């Protein structure tokens, strides 16, 4: 099965603030994909868009009790993923993120695959708890696999040798931003989601099953579905220990 391909979206406004975060504008690699035209926003439109974005940021939580109900259509889900991939920044605009979306039966297949891969590696007396946890992920509607393609990264390492040792780290940043934007975006559409990391144990099996290039590196799995329960309480460290302003 080939990775899903995505079309343009009415969720442009939600993702618009993200496009302003692109880095190193003077050292961008030109994309071979034509980008959708950017709209001009008035001050009030920009503020409304920023407010919507921050509402999604504040609303994003880890939901582990999920079911197979979807609050939006698969077409709208494709649009959300498409906008995320088009407009989430990457270092030097290298666009190295690769996403594979698994829904319904394909999603179930993935989590059964994880279970079968882990079973020989976990003591029998401990596996029951692991299987129960994996069945909880399987109970959801879908999973997004986040990969990074090393080819654009290696190309940049050759082109900008001064930063060669940094590009793999920046690739991780790129993947993390895609994960976060989609997590918040799914939440804004009514889904619950949680982020998992069953790589590298499942990488080979998944790449074989869905004909994914072997050189791609799996970074994370975003599980999403209808919300069943409420997330746990969230605690916060004091901002005084985490944020520092100078010149205000």
From TrEMBL:
The UniProt keywords, alphabetically, are: Cytoplasm, Nucleus, Oxidoreductase
The record's annotation in Pfam families points to:
Nitroreductase
- The Nitroreductase domain covers 57-225
Name the lineage. Eukaryota, Fungi, Dikarya, Ascomycota, Pezizomycotina
Name of the protein in question:
Nitroreductase family protein
User: By its UniProt entry, which InterPro entries does this protein fall under?
Assistant: Frm2/Hbn1, Nitroreductase, Nitroreductase-like
GO terms for biological process, alphabetical: cellular response to oxidative stress
* Keyword Oxidoreductase among record annotations: yes
Tell me where it resides: Cytoplasm; Nucleus
Species this chain originates from: Tothia fuscella
What cellular component GO annotations does this protein have? Answer: cytoplasm; nucleus
User: Which Gene Ontology terms cover its molecular function?
Assistant: oxidoreductase activity
What family does this chain come from, according to its entry?
Answer: Belongs to the nitroreductase family.
| Keyword Transport carried by entry | no
Where does this protein chiefly localize? cytoplasm
Give the highest taxon in the source lineage. Answer: Eukaryota
């Amino acid at each position: 099965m080939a990775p899903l391909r995505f079309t343009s979206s009415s969720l442009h406004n939600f993702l618009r603030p993200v496009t302003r975060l692109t880095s190193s504008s003077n050292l961008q690699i030109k994309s071979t994909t034509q980008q959708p035209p950017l709209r001009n926003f008035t001050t009030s439109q920009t503020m409304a868009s920023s407010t919507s974005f921050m509402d999604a940021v504040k609303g994003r939580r880890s939901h582990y009790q999920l079911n197979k109900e979807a609050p939006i259509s698969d077409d709208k889900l494709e649009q959300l993923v498409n906008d995320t991939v088009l407009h989430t920044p990457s270092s030097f605009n290298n666009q190295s993120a690769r996403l594979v979306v698994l829904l319904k039966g394909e999603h179930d297949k993935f989590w059964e695959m994880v279970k079968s891969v882990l079973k020989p590696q976990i003591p029998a007396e401990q596996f029951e708890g692991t299987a129960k946890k994996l069945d909880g992920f399987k109970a959801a509607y879908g999973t997004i696999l986040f990969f990074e393609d090393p080819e654009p990264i290696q190309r940049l390492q050759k082109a900008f040798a001064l930063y060669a040792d940094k590009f793999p780290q920046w690739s991780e940043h790129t993947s993390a931003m895609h994960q976060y934007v989609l997590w918040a975006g799914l939440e804004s559409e009514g889904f619950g989601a949680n982020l998992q990391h069953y790589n590298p144990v499942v990488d080979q099996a998944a790449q074989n099953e869905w004909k994914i290039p072997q050189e791609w590196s799996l970074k994370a799995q975003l599980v999403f579905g209808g919300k069943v329960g409420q997330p746990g309480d969230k605690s916060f460290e004091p901002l005084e220990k985490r944020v520092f302003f100078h010149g205000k």
